[in-house]
Amino acid sequence: MQHSMDKNKVHSFFRVSVALLLLVFVDSTIPATVQESTADRLHTHVAWLADAARQGRRAGSAGAAESATYISTQFRQLGFEVEVQEFGANRRNVIARYGSANKTILAGAHYDGQGPGFPSAGDNAAGVAVLLELARNMKAAKLPATLVLCAFDDEEQGLNGSVYFADHPTVPLENVYAAVVFDALGRRFMDLNEWTTIVLGEVDDIARQAARDLVEHWTAVLPPRPLAMGA
Ligand SMILES: [Zn+2]
Questions:
Q1: Which sign, positive or negative, has the C-alpha torsion 88, 154, 41, 36?
Q2: How many angstroms does the Cα of residue 165 sit away from the middle of ligand 1?
Q3: Which residue, of 38, 107, 115, 159, has the greatest Cβ tally within 10 A?
């Protein structure tokens, strides 16, 4: 991110959807057992967040608040510092941080869902599950950067959590040099028949190639494993 980036640009920056950073740390030499436990953990997170007891995690609901606690606990167990950023009406962003370098990598995913009757598994329990695994893997990779991982609340009603964070950042945004937001993963999208990765935002040739590499890599490493929980 450039120092000169204005607020609108910062907002659109956080609206970038889906995919790239996994390339930084994913290694095709990872033993099969590690890959399997990663898949198991992803499944566990999605199953917990999409459970009927969470009632679709609508922003402001008890299910969303419980989900924030679950996500905070997971980040803390991984050794991250966690800050809960309340922004009214029982809504909160969960912001996890690891490292002290100026250079910062930010990744995010919204955890709120569409409410009762909607498990909101693909959109976006799956994105949160990836965020939690990302925390584990990026920490292990010992990157020369501070990791800031944000689980945003109240996305479904208008991107309110991420906009609040952009307006009230808890880390210096001018130090963020890469940001990725994960949304609607592990599912087909709209009327597309194929598994599809959509990359939005300020995409250059490097990002485009990284997206292709990512899809190729994950197709080989973690073949889609439908959860049969609905969207
Ligand atoms: Zn979403």
A1: negative
A2: 17
A3: 107
